């Protein structure tokens, strides 16, 4: 029995030694890989995928008639997403169109009045010329009879009759001048009314265009190719202008990663440097990226309450610098990367720039 225990102890010791050796070897390999990575790369796991996620906002209020999209659906630019009941907007448009036609008719009437008044003024002007000729002729007759009266070749009654006729002709001449002036004044007044109506027509044209826009706003379309987010609305729901109805992820722009590197890691980083990106969701797949910008300040500086170390209670904390990295590759190749995914970013330390 003693010999059997000795053999068993030796076997256990041998297995334990091999296991310890394997553990030491694994730790050595892991340590070597870690040191090699530390030597070769600047890396961070404080990074997320970003894309333009824009709200779909209604520019008109009303009841939703139809919803033309589903959650996570791919849409093309111009595809109809929502339809709002447009009957009230069409009625407003028709009312404005009717008011516009009325004003245009008023403008035609005023133009006709101006034409008529111009003819009236022309007739009054002609009467002025005739009355002036009569006054001139009667004045000569009066001067002649006045001379004859002095020479006692005409009676006082004849002179008075000629003088009365002269006064009548002068009165008719003044009346013709006043009629002509009144006609011109009326033309000026009608032209002023015409300018008012023309201004009203311009206002109604602008209002009609606005109503047409309101009608067009009742059909909400996709502004670009993209993917719809969560659907929270249904037909029959009442919405207000300016209300956010859904979100759409823009497929027409590049994806990017915001990687928050430590301030001690960005000394040699430059725009144009290449990086490797590994998403937590796809650890066996590598994506390529290019640095396109570095933040002008640390992330904490943009916070609502940035830290202030001037109080004297200073504790030095390594700050983070947001680095924006464009994800290279086609849209199909990068489609697996979704907004908000956590990724690890590796930037080779030794990069040469021409």
UniProtKB/TrEMBL annotation:
Superkingdom classification of source: Bacteria
Subcellular location: Membrane
Alphabetized Pfam families for the sequence: Beta-barrel_RND_2, BSH_RND
Biological process according to GO: transmembrane transport
Domain CusB-like beta-barrel: 256-297
Coiled coil: 100-193
Annotated membrane topology: Single-pass membrane protein
Record's protein name: HlyD family secretion protein
